[in-house]
């Protein structure tokens, strides 16, 4: 479904969100106070405008209130980021997601009504650490503090064995959600499915159970 999204702040993070959403077919209004930043996304947004994110008149005249979703990506100017979040929320935008520099910034944004706060450097750092920790981990999605989804490369230990033989749920309390082989994804694996060389298992569970599976089961 096509969404109307406003992206405010077109640094590295904001401009990449803007370009990707536009490429995915969504309507994207891009805003920055810097004309060069605005020009850079002109061909990669539905509309790109120079405006001050902390000026309510600017936000109103651009029709920000009509958008369902806002991404605010102003990292360095804490005051501008907080003020803009408050105003966009006040204008009635349903989902306001905001980039934060650090935990203190995150806490303030949550207090003023941000629906989701993202710390890209921190989150990417954690992700990279998990990749270094285990070469078996292809990718990693954190569902909550304790639960995650891991993409794990099949090892010799599991290749040519069926899910029934492996009993991953019984032994490790983890669920195999899907099995990937290059571009092909088996989204509803059954007990009889056999793990093949080059497969990637997409497994959900408690982080301790996942760790146990990764260490002992693979
Ligand atoms: P990056 O994603 O590159 O790390 P950042 O989080 O470090 O970015 P900044 O570089 O501080 O964030 O700002 C991002 C963008 O927001 C910049 O292009 C800047 O011009 C814009 N910006 C900052 N304050 C305002 C404002 N009050 N109104 C409009 N745009 C603003
Ligand atoms: P962030 O992940 O916070 O966005 P960044 O990519 O913007 O960081 P910098 O802040 O420029 O990168 O640098 C990251 C760290 O690297 C800093 O703590 C800095 O002190 C350190 N650093 C930079 N240059 C050197 C150097 N020549 N030798 C050792 N440490 C360095
Ligand atoms: Ca930055």
From TrEMBL:
PROSITE patterns associated with the record: RCK_C, RCK_N
UniProt-listed Gene3D superfamilies: NAD(P)-binding Rossmann-like Domain, Regulator of K+ conductance, C-terminal domain
Domain RCK C-terminal: 135-218
GO BP annotations listed: potassium ion transport
Domain RCK N-terminal: 2-118
GO MF entry, a single one: monoatomic cation transmembrane transporter activity
InterPro entries hit by this protein: NAD(P)-bd_dom_sf, RCK_C, RCK_C_sf, RCK_N, Trk_Ktr_HKT_K-transport
Pfam families: TrkA_C (PF02080), TrkA_N (PF02254)
Annotated signal peptide: none
Classification via PANTHER family: KTR SYSTEM POTASSIUM UPTAKE PROTEIN C, POTASSIUM CHANNEL PROTEIN 2-RELATED-RELATED
Protein known as: TrkA family potassium uptake protein
